[in-house]
Design a protein that fits this description.
341 residues, alpha/beta, seven-stranded mixed sheet
């Protein structure tokens, strides 16, 4: 858990439930009215879907972006942070409470939180700025990337699937099948899987996918992929799977099946061998800067969504040794996360 005002789910649920009593009758105040009511400070609600490394990095970056644009908690703004702990009900209650309290803007980290925030705020003229939403159009948060024309905009993390598939082919030259475990209710995962399937034949791969509905099915889903004897697994930015990645690695390590992650922390902390990774702190910083511009008067409906796709290769020599994988010469300049401390 990173530097934040983290509360237990029980306390969150109790306090939010009390706040919802007035939700039906209260309308959102203007930023100037809210600022006056809070001693001249704007109110910023930040809702993070769950605790895992890439989303924590987004939060860190958001605070950096806000500060770079002149917004610092306790000085000229009040930041209300809630971690939804991966629970839909907690995310929905938090979003509703931000609206009830008349926050000037809601920043949502990950697609499920963005959907909860937008559903709560869209009729109250409270802008929503999302971070790390892989397919905001598909998720119903925007009409297009260039002109959202809703009440939401933000940043999209577009995974470099070409780079990832190229990496897997280099690390496993004889591999034929790539397993993918994904959550059927996560719009970003469904979209990512579709893109991966379209590109995989270009690199001589077949995608073998298994869908799950919640955390309770991750273990059986991982076992199913092991049973299908896939050569490796490629992990998406699926929140449910990432939160339970240790369950997956328990099955795959025993079976000798390596996992390629979708970002650096999955390699550094969760046992993946390598990744073509995005910089999620930078993604969050862009999100924070976009939110600040909206607070200063920019129109959320016309602000284009920022798609971040620049990536870099990283690997873990320690994790590679478990599977007798040698570092390909083409990746000699890549970053070994084991050497980063």
């Amino acid at each position: 858990m990173k530097k934040a005002k983290k509360f237990t789910v029980v306390v969150i649920a109790m306090s939010l439930a009390l706040g919802l009593a007035a939700c039906g009758s209260k309308t959102a105040a203007s930023p100037s009215a809210n600022a006056s009511a809070s001693g001249g400070k704007v109110k910023i609600g930040i809702l993070q879907y769950a605790t895992h490394a890439s989303l924590d990095d987004c939060y860190t970056g958001i605070l950096e972006g806000l500060k770079a644009e002149g917004y610092e908690d306790g000085k000229n703004c009040t930041i209300n942070y809630v971690n939804g702990q991966g629970e839909a009900e907690t995310n929905n209650l938090a979003a509703a409470n931000f609206v009830t309290e008349g926050d000037d803007i809601i920043i949502a980290i990950a697609t499920p939180s963005a959907a909860a925030a937008y559903a709560a705020a869209k009729d109250k003229s409270i802008p929503v700025v999302f971070s790390a939403c892989s397919d905001p159009v598909g998720a119903g948060l925007a009409q297009s990337l260039d002109a959202p024309n809703t009440g939401a905009t933000g940043t999209s993390d577009s995974l470099d699937f070409d780079g990832q598939l190229k990496m897997i082919r280099a690390f496993l030259p004889n591999a034929k099948t790539i397993g993918v475990l994904y959550t059927t209710s996560e719009a970003n995962s469904v979209s990512q899987l579709k893109k991966l399937k379209a590109l995989a034949p270009n690199y001589g791969f077949e995608i073998v996918d298994v869908g799950v509905t919640d955390a309770s099915e991750v273990a059986t889903g991982a076992a199913a992929l092991v049973g299908k004897k896939v050569d490796c697994i490629d992990n998406l930015t699926d929140n449910n799977v990432v939160m339970n990645l240790s369950v997956v690695t328990n099955a795959t390590d025993t079976a000798g099946i390596p996992i390629f992650g979708s970002e650096i922390e999955q390699v550094a902390e969760y046992g993946c061998v390598a990744s073509e990774t995005l910089d999620y702190v930078a993604l969050g910083k862009t999100t924070g800067q976009m939110a600040a511009k909206i607070l200063k008067g920019a129109d959320v409906k016309t602000m284009p969504i920022s798609v971040v796709s620049d990536s870099k290769p990283v690997y873990s020599l320690t994790n590679m040794k478990k599977f007798n994988i040698a570092l390909p010469s083409d990746y000699s300049a890549a970053t070994d996360v084991d050497s980063q401390g």
